[in-house]
Amino acid sequence: MAGRKESKGKGELIIAADKLEGFPLAESALPKAVKRRVHALKRLQLQYAHTEAQFYQEVHELERKYAALYQPLFDKRRSVVTGAVEPTDEECEWQSDREEDEDLTEGLKKKAVLEEKSDAGEAPKGIPEFWLTIFRTVPMLSEMLQEHDEPILKHLQDITVKFSEPDQPMSFILEFHFEPNSFFSNTVLTKLYKMKAEPDDTDPFSFEGTEIVDCEGCTISWNKGKDVTVKTIKKKQKHKGRGTVRTITKQIPQDSFFNFFNPIKEASAGSHSSVFVRSEVATVPVLSLTFYDRM
Predict the structure, then answer these.
(1) pLDDT tens digits along 270-289
(2) Residues of the chain with pLDDT under 50
């Protein structure tokens, strides 16, 4: 619900005279009477932009309201994923199960029951590697995922979104909740996105909706030798005077999903388009269905 790409250009249609250099109808070349009417259209467009800003601010309030309504469902989801709660038979009913039961012959049904009994003692807790499976499956996330990230993401228990309070500047926080692990001491990794939903005074016609104006990651307290955002390389170095050779070791950055939490603070969020980030947030509530609906 952030900035809408399709809205781009609606203001430009009205103020094209200002945007197209050398075009025969450039404002400076317009007759005075026509130029006067163009100014009237600009005023209308400015009023439209401010009204649209109110729309996006109300959308944010609506998102906040429903985030509170969604939360009990997400809490239950986390309990099931982590194995803290075992869902009831009624909660586990799903249409595909009934269809499979109808397709099974009586003999296969008995065999399935026996297999379930024999495996009962080995049943895994919750849904193993749930979020890692999601990361592998959702294109937007899989592009960020590296092989050395996967052992860490096996410990990811939940992803949540927190919206700012009504009396605070518009923002939201992505929270990644981890169980205790050997990679870092954090239990929650966060990324804060500060937003703005109002036209820029210096360029009001460029307004396209809610935009990210700043973002702030967090410090990951890596355990020794476990930081996957860097790799260690060894290089032989020859002393110019003595001719002796020594081996030096240094760390260099490497691709990792966990670079997502850097930089700790970013003055400008220009590299984070509002469409991408808000898609990222919108994905969180449906991640649990994306992969398993394909199975």
Answers:
(1) 444 334 444 444 444 454 44
(2) 1-24, 269-285, 287-295
Tokens of 29: 């070349």
φ, ψ at 221 (rounded to 5°): -90, 80
- Supply φ then ψ for residue 249, to 5 degrees: -120, 135
Angle at 7 between CA 14 and CA 266, to 5 degrees: 115
Res 129: pLDDT: 92
- SS3 percent helix, strand, coil of the chain, rounded to 5, is 45, 20, 35
> How would you classify residue 67: left for phi > 0, otherwise alpha for psi between -120 and 50, otherwise beta?
alpha
Quote the pTM value.
0.74
CA 3 to chain centre: 15
3-state SS, residue 202? coil
Non-local (6+) Cβ contacts of 171 within 8 A are 163, 164, 192, 193, 194, 195
Strands (DSSP E) found in 50-169? 156-163
**pLDDT tens digit string along 240-263?**
767 677 778 888 999 999 999 986
Question: At a CB cut-off of 8 Å and minimum separation 6, what does 276 contact?
Answer: 140
How does DSSP assign 204-235, residue by residue? GGG--S-EEEEEE-----BPTT--TTEEEEEE
**Contact (CB, 8 A) for 194 and 251:** no
CA distances (Å), origin 100, targets 103, 107, 123: 5, 14, 21
CA distance 27 to 203: 17
